[in-house]
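Hi! If you just cloned this repository, the fastest way to understand the data is to look at a raw example. We've pasted two of them here, unedited. The first protein comes first, obviously.
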Amino acid sequence: MKLLSSFAFGLVFGVGILISGMGNPGKVLNFFDVAGTWDPSLAFVMGGALLVTAIGYRLVFRMERPVLASSFSLPTKRELDMKLIGGSAVFGIGWGLTGFCQGGLIPVLGIGLTGPLLTLAAIAAGIVAARWAMSLSRRGTTVKA
């Protein structure tokens, strides 16, 4: 049941991404181009997502436990560290350069364009590089540029 519900939620999310235009890198890049061909429509998509999320959290946390799990799994870490700040910066830069957010990238992988595949390859390379750098820092080794 958990796998089936995950598939259903992912399918609804992917269809929503495509209908909203967030899978179209040109539309996303126009949203970021406030001094040029700015397209504010994605602000309404994001605002709608925030509204649904806020309502969802209010309803879900009234429950004793999740429907498909024994307990809620919430993050316990509260402080901002360099991994979070750096990761957020890299995410934003990548999104601004390519027009593909990771959530919007997955639904468009199947349409056969090279842009989404190259973006996915860059994300995978970034993950590997970050893990390598973190393993070096744990060992006390510094990365030389």
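Ok, and the second one:
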Amino acid sequence: MWDVRFAGPDYAYGTEPNDFLKAQVKQLKGKRVLSLAEGEGRNAVYLAKLGFEVTAVDGSVKGIEKAQKLAQAVGVKVQFIHADLSKFELGNQCWDNIIAIFAPFARPLREKLHQGVVRALKPGGVFLTEAYAPEQIHFGTGGGSDVSTMLSATQLAEELSPLEWKHLQQLERQVVEGQYHTGLAAVVQGVAIKPLIKP
């Protein structure tokens, strides 16, 4: 599906970064960022322009190709990795930040990824995400028709325990990101920190 969606010349979700990421980017710590389900590169390229060292993972070859073109056009360096996120190893306490922007995974895989996020963040590291909430199924402005890929603020907090949430909100907002994410939408937004290891 994603290779088909990303095969055209236009960027399916545009080339501008996600609004929530832009609004909360000052919450990110350190230099290293891992972006999950990056797609065509808009968020990774934005962070690289700000000076972050970005590694971006996606399962679509076409998405990675377009992400590389976007990075080259802007003149930034991003490490793009083509990988199946159901099998990709995030690592252990090695990332300053991990982001997941509209990463539509069904619950079993999402829970596994979220467990990996908790392991992979350094103590004090930041997880930043925006996703569609279950109510989005009634809006039809993005996110597909599978409610199992959407999650509530309560689910997000449960799946990412023991992270500490600095910001966690479920709301309706106008999302304008290319042709597939446009219009009023139900979303959940979060910024969480991995607790420091106590001596």
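That's it. A detail worth noticing about the second one: The chain has one domain: 2-193.
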